[in-house]
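help with this:

***
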Amino acid sequence: MTTKSVLITGATRGLGAGLARQFAARGYRLALTGRKRQDLEHLAEELAGQAPELVLETLDVVDFDSIGAVVERCAEQLNGLDIIVVNAGVGFHTPVGACDFGLIRQTVDVNLTAAIATAEAAVILFRRQGRGQLVGISSVARVRGLSGQGVYCATKAGFSRYLQTLRLETRYESIVVTELAPGYIDSDMSRSVPNRRFTVSAQKGTGIMVDLIERRVRFRYVPTWPWTLIARIIAWLPDSLIARM
């Protein structure tokens, strides 16, 4: 068991909720954020017997200016934050030239702009504390553009490049930057994908993710096998095959 503290954005569903359950089971003190207070309270009721301390903060990450204040409040209530997981994300079908621009903008706002804003707030806090671990959730979609998912792929690739830069710029500081790129882990978002090969359960997938976070890795696909190999194959497949996937 541990006494460490972790903040998770987008904690009320999908991978965020799964990560919250995994961290709670390991005795972490939790700061959970999400758009709906009722959803946060339901999750807190479930975790109350496991996590030694729970902080709930309503946060819509597209309200960029509020992110820093929420991070600071969570840190104050938990006497600092050891880990911040930038998890909040959306995924929509966005075929080129045939998509509502509102969905395009929402994807960019949540997956890229808000993710970077959260990471920036984390770095400010970690520098003041003198230590911390920033965990960014990207995706195997960072590797290559895929049909119908161009905007999603672009945002995940963009956030991945930002995390790489963040790691370079903090290399002499006590800040660990971890990037996890999930393949198909069973969640509401992944269920919208027609062919989900090699899907693992939310419990297994998020358990692997927390194991990797605790190991303070720099980067991993999740699960590591077979997605490390699949990502390399996807990167080199000809367009004619990718277009049919």
User: Anything to note?
Assistant: Strands lie at 5-8, 29-34, 54-58, 83-86, 132-137, 175-182, 219-222. The mean pLDDT is 94.
